[in-house]
Fold these 2 entries.
Entry 1:
Amino acid sequence: MTDQKRMLWANEQGLAPQAPLFFSRKHGPAGPRAISRVQAWTIVKAASERANVRVLALRGSRRGAIGEPAPAHPHVFRHVRVRQIVRQTRSLPLAQRQAGWARLQPAYLSIGDEEARELMRGVAD
């Protein structure tokens, strides 16, 4: 969703220009209060569990070992967006800049088997 679409949606919902997009039921003196990092993580994790959405774990945890399916968490969306930018634009500097990283992590240069097959179909012999 673009910033413009997000602003239009917020206006349609009657949110003030500086109001948080994700807010708790509790209001502070200035109006709706933004949810915390922990609340966001809890919401995404619960939704991931209900929908049975899994991602491959990059680290071992009590949920399983590295490379095993694990529940999604909010930080995954940041990494998904960077991969999307790299795949659509083929611009590593753009992805790096959008993510705010000093250098692009090598993991974003890798591709899956299906993507490799698709790309190879377009390569002349």
Entry 2:
Amino acid sequence: MSSVGPSEAIQELATILHRDLHPIIVIINNAGYTIERQIQSPSAVYQDITPWDWTALPAAFAPQVPVRTASAGTVGELSTALLEVTRTPDRLVLVEAKLEPLSAPALLTQLGRATAQANHRD
């Protein structure tokens, strides 16, 4: 499992496609920098990432390579997408999981608050 930013993800996606690898890639798209939103400025424009059509990118990089893509905005859609990917082990699968910008696990929210408090003490 790996976590990378948008520019690194794009480079790696192109490499994976051209090497004919068949991973399942789940992109967690929360439209920005969640940890920074938790620490400070949750609605600041600089926390946003320009929206991309992630599911269109494989075809843009390697139109001849068969892939399977899905975009999920609900738990049900994500469950369906993940079930479908098990049916295509012979190709790259890219699933975009769309989350609300402030969606975060409880631990990340706590870490953000603690960091914000520490920053204000200085």
